[in-house]
Specification:
This protein is α+β, with helices and mostly antiparallel strands. 58% of the residues lie in helices and 14% in strands. The strands form 3 sheets. The chain has a 6-stranded antiparallel sheet with strand order 3-2-1-6-5-4. Strands 7-10-11-8 form a 4-stranded mixed sheet, with helices on both faces. A two-stranded antiparallel sheet has the order 9-12.
Length: 411
């Protein structure tokens, strides 16, 4: 370990004391140390240069130089020759070079040592944090294992949940999630809603149960304490006596991209399931659903790049039909309606498909899908969770937007 001394005055005092002691001994006993081959003052320069670095090295040179001047003066020699005589001149030059070289070496070595020491200290702190984190993870894992084993859900069942949720598309993940949660928690009315970007409404994704209890759209207000609590805490939320009457029994967030993108809502379930262990299991399943949806979205985005018009999010007709087929399955299994709208695009002049998409996205929901048939020059719109009556309103809105903001209607 290298010697460190941060007190500058102590360094200076040490140097002055050593030079003063040597000077007194030299003067009292008339030793003539400055003429020795192994000059003690050179060792003083060497010692302090290596011990404290370049600054004290220069100071040690000038301190010994001062003594040299004093010794020359007291001896009655010519001070002028001290700086011009070859022997004295070379001695002073050698002393200066010794101080500079050794001081620079010491300073460089100390800087490297301090850097390595700082890195070592950081690594020690990181190791402490990692050790603490690993211990917390081990404790959490042990507690979770105990709770899982204590509940009626076996590890085999949890494993089956993971297998079922490992689906290639987000829609299939949601479908499996509804079935899994309904089975695990004996829930009747259960649905997954998409959170609108403004967070003012929830749009139905998939539903199992009554359409009256679980409507196509849930409008949120600032007075909705239940949903405000859900979005604030980002955790499973239970209805309490202070919440609005139409609030569901329980809701859980589905988080990806670090935001609540979807919400699981359960309105009827076996209340014996609302134990601490069961809520933790539900939280675990929701985390898994969030992860699988996020991964499926990434996989789907890569697969669908070839199914879209270049530079847009508009599907070719075949890919659009595949999405419609998925909605057919959801309608049959879960009773979720959908509608399609067709608009003849060549009736709007002076507009590209990409320009039309930019205009229309502000009038469509995030979950709506656009398709294009280049042979017939038709734009297709898939509106999940929208019945035919509302689809007519959307169609009028689309045509009006294209006419007013996009191009000239041909008639």
């Amino acid at each position: 370990m290298i010697y460190t001394q941060k007190n500058v005055w102590r360094k200076v005092v040490e140097l002055l004391v050593v030079v003063l002691v040597l000077g007194i001994i030299d003067q009292v006993f008339q030793l003539g140390m400055l003429g020795w081959t192994l000059n003690p003052f050179l060792f003083v320069i060497l010692f302090f240069s290596l011990r404290y670095g370049i600054n004290i090295a220069i100071l040690s040179f000038f301190t010994t130089l001062v003594y040299h001047v004093i010794a020359t003066f007291t001896a009655g020699d010519d001070l002028f020759l001290l700086f011009y005589d070859t022997g004295d001149y070379l001695y002073l030059l050698f002393s200066l070079l010794l101080a500079v070289i050794c001081g620079l070496y010491s300073s460089s070595y100390r800087e490297r040592y301090e850097s390595l020491t700082y890195t070592q200290d950081e690594l020690k702190d990181d190791n402490k944090e990692l050790t603490k984190t690993i211990k917390e993870l081990e404790d959490s894992q042990r507690v979770m294992q105990e709770k899982v084993l204590d509940s009626e859900h076996t590890l085999a069942q949890i494993y089956q949940v993971g297998i079922k949720l490992d689906q290639p598309t987000p829609e299939l993940v949601r479908n499996e999630a509804i079935a899994i949660i309904a089975d695990l928690f004996k829930a009747n009315d259960i649905a997954i809603y998409h959170v609108d970007s403004s967070k003012r409404s929830l749009r139905l994704r998939v539903r199992q149960g009554s359409s009256q209890t679980l409507p196509q759209t849930v409008f949120l207000s600032e007075e909705s304490s239940f949903y405000q609590r859900l979005f604030t805490e980002k955790a499973i939320t239970l209805r309490n006596v202070k919440d609005e009457k139409n609030a569901p029994v329980i809701a859980g967030p589905i988080v990806y991209n670090e935001e609540i993108q979807e919400v699981l809502i359960i309105d009827q379930l076996d209340f014996s399931r609302l134990t601490t262990h069961e809520i933790q299991i539900m939280s675990f399943v929701l985390d898994w659903i969030s992860n699988r949806i996020e991964k499926a979205r990434e996989w789907q985005a890569k697969d669908e790049e070839k199914q879209m018009l270049s530079g847009t999010n508009i599907y070719y007709k075949d890919a659009f039909d595949a999405h419609v087929a998925q909605q057919d399955v959801r309608k049959e299994e879960y009773g979720v309606p959908y509608s399609t709208v067709v608009i003849q695009f060549d009736r709007f002049e002076g507009m590209s498909v990409a320009e039309a998409e930019v205009i229309l996205r502000t009038y469509l929901r995030e979950i709506d899908i656009i398709g294009f048939d280049s042979r017939q020059s038709n734009l297709y719109f898939l509106l999940p969770g929208t019945d035919a009556e509302n689809a007519q309103v959307v169609e009028k809105r689309i045509k009006k937007a294209l006419k007013e903001k996009g191009g000239t209607h041909a008639g």
